[in-house]
Amino acid sequence: MPSNRTVSDASITQFTNCRLLRDHQLTREDLWVRDGRILDPEKLFFDEQGYADRQLDCGGAILAPGFIDVQINGGYGVDFSQLSEDASVGVAFVAKKILEHGVTSFCPTLVTSPPSVYHKVLPKVKVQNGGLHGAGVLGVHVEGPFISLEKKGAHPERFLETFRGTGGGDRPGGIQRLLEVYGCLDNVAMVTLAPELAGSQSVVEELCQRGITVSLGHSVANLSQAEEAVQQGASFITHLFNAMLPFHHRDPGIVGLLTSDRVPAGRSVFYGMIADGIHTNPAALRIAHRAHPAGLVLVTDAITAMGLPPGRHTLGQQVLEIQGLHAYVAGTTTLSGSIATMDQCVRHFRHASGCSVPEALEAASLHPAQLLGISSQKGCLQYGCDADMVLLDDQLNVEATFISGEEVWRRPLQHGAQQGGH
Description:
N-acetylglucosamine-6-phosphate deacetylase activity, metal-binding, 2 domains, TIM Barrel, carbohydrate metabolism, EC 3.5.1.25, 9-stranded parallel sheet, 24 strands, alpha/beta
């Protein structure tokens, strides 16, 4: 038999009997993986005369790119914004648990906190690949404290910051002030800020030059302020419609970015949607999707209470109360994050928007990868990409999760269920 060892000693896995999500559609074809990456079978057969070492029958299920959550505050009793002896332990625990929801990569998110929390937590949450141990960490999303007082939402007012310098007077401190507050940007992938804050333009530009994604949110910015931030490099909107001025026909505010004609050529503005059925009315979800479908990024904005029973929990420095599927700042009616999982958001988005299955899946995979500039490695199943994948049934329930082509989670068989059936 011909050898497949001419290029690599690594074994080759062939995923058969599946509907692959590739090029925005589901197609019936096999997928080949070696060394954690997706292979071009033509090159394998004709150039190497190779073959598969093992086959995995997907039973006719959908094989899609693994989900990427760019806004998740914690879950299962872990709050990323709480000081602990070692923040990486909590992140690792959540990383393991979210595998069952099809998430293969994520950005642990810190809400507005005192500088001491950032200084202690940020150095501990390092970028790392996923595997059996859990989903990969793409870098931290710091949401605040450079946000609007009027649209602080569940963020504690006493820790809000401006870009003013600390040396007296009203001279903007800009990026220096941001660095004082965060302590270090080494492990930061995204920063949410309010673009109307004085000095924000230079900060947006500097962060983008450092390869950090800038998101606009918790803001009372008008459209021209938002457009200016985009021209400086901002590329994301944090949970569209939530914690921003409502849409108005004379000045649509940040929401207007979805159809703005002042977005630089070749650039795209993405926007996060918490499709949990609570944060955004289905009609608003449909309006956003129909206005700018290629920019929609599903986020969970999940908090400590995800995966736990109702009761009292924390989000950073705030106490939250979970009532049914709603998470409120205790004693108020202020919504604060969600308790939805990513696969729930995908299912709700598909149902509420009436979009196609590929569109629903790409909003949780391709679009966040494009937002973070990593779509040549993650978020799609093109040749050469990381084999981070999720296997789903027709109702978009997760059956199995794979990272680098290796199975890291599989749904347990129901009692009395037949093996191999779909």
